[in-house]
Design goal:
With 116 residues, this protein is mostly helical. Helix content is 77%, strand content 0%. α1 (2-27) runs parallel beside α2 (38-51) and α2 (38-51) runs antiparallel to α3 (63-80). The model has no long low-confidence stretch (mean pLDDT 88).
Length: 116
Amino acid sequence: MINREISSRLAAGHGRRVTQLADAAARWGGQVPEDPGITELADLLEAAATNAPDRPGGPGHTTRALLAGAVEDLRAAARLGGLLPAVTLWHLQRAIDQEHTAHQQTVPAQRQERER
């Protein structure tokens, strides 16, 4: 009973994070398929990292570096597959956090460019 409950919660968390990452990939201009896999999302964010402006961000992290970190975590999650669901979720959450930070860095810079 406990294992089933934990499995259900992990599966729900996995689904939410994949949806968040699909939204993030779309925000960076990616053409997200209807039911994307983790590898497809990694490919989309990798393309975004290649095209992203290399703006400095927090302590030594550029937008490209943050997106590259997100891609690494997505690839790690894809390699794990369903073997270690909690670890896979950790990698997915880390990818979300890195993408979010990268996006937050670009928004103020885009506003400044528009104001010029």
